[in-house]
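dumping this here before i forget
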Amino acid sequence: MELPRLLLVRQNYPDRRIADIPGETHRQLAAAGLARRLRPGARIAIGVGSRGIRNLAAIVGSVVRYWKDAGMEPFLFPAMGSHGGATAEGQADVLAHYGITEATMGCGLVSQLEVVSLGKTADGIEAFMDQAAYAADGVMLVNRTKWHTDFSGAIESGLFKMMAIGVGKLAGAQRYHAYGHRMGLESVIRTVGRQTLRSGKILGGLAILEDAYHQTAKLDVVTADAMEQREEENLALVKRWMAKLPLDLDLLVVDEMGKNISGMGMDTKIINRTHRGEYNPFPDTPRIERIFARDLSDLTYGNALGVGSADVVTDRLARGIDTHNTWINALTASNPSGAHTPIHFATDRECLEHILPTTGRVEAGENTIGWIRNTLELARLGLSENLREAIAKHPLLEIEDEMPMELDGEGNLISPLAPVEAGTGGR
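structure:
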């Protein structure tokens, strides 16, 4: 098998990063005045999720300091459904790997799975809240606002979704996904979110928006009464900033996938697959004929939900799958097909040799190949040399370097795509 030369390409998006993350967090919190609603000494539950958001520890630490400086007693709780193996210890461990612990944050961290019922919505869905959070004097949420991998709507991932599937823990996540299967997940998120707000416990939230480079680009402290409208506005904004693959491809090589990167391991709206694996459903997204996923991210803890979207994977990826974590997440999300393990082979060479003949190209050298580290990091990518003319015509693309597409002595690809700095994560 002869591999093509690789062009290392940069996508030149606007850089919207915030220079002073702690300072901007404090300014936004102070302007919203959440602390003015409470008496000194109030216990504040801060909900944090399982996505690897850029600067997450710095942002959460700043939120904790704001409440402590205001004379309150903040504590953290994992606002996750079935992630971390749906155990209290596993969910605390997820946060620890993002640098969020009692020691680093300077406050307590209460991880448990018991919930309190908040009554039923008008359409009959029982809503739940983490028991420890409910016992607090107020709840604040910290989450990224982003498009969702399973559906499209005016509200997708963000504070409202966290109020439902995160704050409701495993009990809520199971129930909401079941209703979402027939009612639509956006409808469930809205109705459960509104029911959660009626509890009077939610003070507001900090919405984190990232730019195309996965940099923190906007921090928006939203009060409870404005949350639904601001969710819509922030989602519309971040969709305009979204990075995408630039060209149609016969094969996309993905170095790593995982829950810290996307809810489905690989962002469905990047790879042009639905969460159930349907090929190229999004007309405004480049067509991707085949996907080769090489490995799991270390920060996914063996949760390989979404691996079914790949056409071929390595044996090492297959061996890294924690079936308990993956199956629990797949079943909770009413998406068993997302846990299906694709065809797999011992080496990258074998994966390429077997999958490239299935793209429909008569000659192997005609295949157009793209290579990314993961679906969150799209600023730099590799493209096969036969795409040089298309690259030259693309307004956002710039060739930085070129090199052979190489295999090591064991038959595995040598990736030219370095990881982002430790702890920045994705999703």
